[in-house]
Amino acid sequence: MDIAIIVEGKNDKSRIRRVLDESVPIFCTFGTPGTVQLEKLRKQVGDKDVYIFTDNDSSGKRIRGILRDLFPDAEHIYTRRGYPGVEHTPEDYLIEQFEKAGLESYIQYPVKYEEGI
């Protein structure tokens, strides 16, 4: 499976990178994307399977809606309402969400997961 993940910003990307393999490209919208940024994203993603992971706030929901139109077949990953954005979501919850999305083969599990602690 050839996948790509789209997030809002570089801090979200950095947070997700801690739990996903380096081979998974993570693209940023850098806020609400305009026409030029959307076309750039479309070219960067190419024919990869897209996973959209934005914040659970009004801005994140607006961006998710724009990306849903651009990538109608994308899978959507959500952070819990109580977390202040993807960048502040605990790693164990990120891992849970990526497992639910069927991305286990891309997850970099911390040692505590591997040892069953």
From TrEMBL:
It comes from the Bacteria. Transmembrane segments: none annotated. PROSITE patterns: TOPRIM. One of its GO terms (biological process) is rRNA processing. GO terms for molecular function: ribonuclease M5 activity. Residues 2-86 form the Toprim domain. It holds the Pfam family Toprim. PANTHER family: DNA PRIMASE (BACTERIAL TYPE) AND SMALL PRIMASE-LIKE PROTEINS (PTHR39156:SF2), RIBONUCLEASE M5 (PTHR39156). This is Toprim domain protein. It comes from Paenibacillus catalpae. The lineage of its organism: Bacteria, Bacillati, Bacillota, Bacilli, Bacillales.
